Amino acid sequence: MIGMMYLVLTALLALNVSSETLLKFIYLNESLERQVNQNGTKNAGIVGRIQKAVDDAGNRKDDIEVLNTAQEVRKATEEIINYTNDLKEKMYEVAGGRDPENGHPKDAQNTDVVANLMIKQKGGKNGKELKQKLNEYPEFLNKMLKGEEQFALLAFDGKEHPIYKDNPEQKRKDFATLQFSDAPVAACMATISQFQTEIMAYESRALENLARKVGAGDVKFDKIEPMVRANSNIVAAGTRYEAEMFIAASSSGITPTMAVDGKSIPVEAGKGRVEFVASGGTYDAEGLAKKTYTAEITMKMPTGQDSTFRQEIEYFVAKPVIQIQSAAVQALYLNCGNELNVQVPALGTAYNPSFSAKGATAIEGSKKGFVTVIPSSREVTLSVSSNGTFIGAEKFGVRGIPKPTLQPQVNGRPVDLRIGATVPGPRSLTMAAIADESFLAALPNDARYRVTEFEVILGRGARRIATVTSNGPTVNLSTLAAQARPGDRLVIDVKEVQRMNFRGQTESVRMGSQVFTIPLNE
User: Fold this and answer.
1) Coil, helix or strand for 106?
2) What architecture is domain 323-399?
């Protein structure tokens, strides 16, 4: 961290530091100083916690030794913090003191005075002494904790520095030159404050290690509440309600880790939140599937070791009832867009369906639960899932598409083929393709038929007098009417009928031979 700060300083200095940048260094220093003060309060609290744990345990000899070590660590930390604070006061002095308005160094931009103080004055005594004290502190901690934690040195010459040892220009510099040469006062103070934060972090690690030895991290259950575990939260009138009541205890001083089937779950106020999507399985005659999961709670015991408590929890999953609404719910129509509304009331607002189909294509609709099923075989299985969890499947039979009824019409009215028409016959004729009523009611968008080709023949005896052909449902018969005589007949031969499906695509309908005869009377 110090090395990175120095790198930033060097770059900024090369760009001729602005007053705005100096202010940032001042604010950085103030922020680091606040952090040092807060950590000092926190670390003092750890020592107090160790003291209380020792007292509560009856002032055992081994525990008292740990407390003494913690107090020595705290004392050593305070000494080096005080020393570095005195050093910052000297920096204020050489920078002309504090500005009475804001407390900042008066000559914060000066790049010579701190270098003179730390590098040149008395043969660089201040810089050498700072390096020595910074490195004596982690060595002291390593000794006090007997190697249980490893604390690295804090101050390096260029040739020892992890970042600069391979840099030809920087590795020749000693510690003080590396940190304070050509640096403004504001930056030098921030450098000292950063060293202080490193010291406080080291102390915190050391004290926490010591605290664990005397049970300051012991679990003490200070939250006790009654718990009731009912056999069932749903009881029918006239039946017995049964439950177990017991005490649940938790500790506000520790947050255990908890897991379900090996996966971590969130823990708040000592309580884990178990939440997962229940999946179905093999349902019994009552529609219930037996399920289990493994609950795990891991917490640190007084010995400092982690202990894990496990229990297998049993629960039951009720088979959800799938409700399907459709005009053709019992059977679907082949190659048609059968619109279904599939709902699972038991899931409530958590219902987020997706569909797949065997023997058909399933297209999800714009509304939740709506799906269009297009069968391609005589039996369809529609599978329903919610949020990726399988819910169930429904099977449907598939009907063939009923053929339409063809009907000759004149002026929108059906022609009575038994009576026929009066000579010269109709001037225009329409061949209507009328959908089956049930099919039309169920799937109106798939029941759109149209006669696309037919011919009308004017017949007299065994002879064909004239013929007109139409490529649509309506044909002009004026040419036939001009030649018609009593006793003639109009023979209608339908060549092609098409159906338009719900997608707007057309397909030919196999109608077989469709011939209609209209006699022409006098």
Assistant:
1) coil
2) Sandwich (2.60)
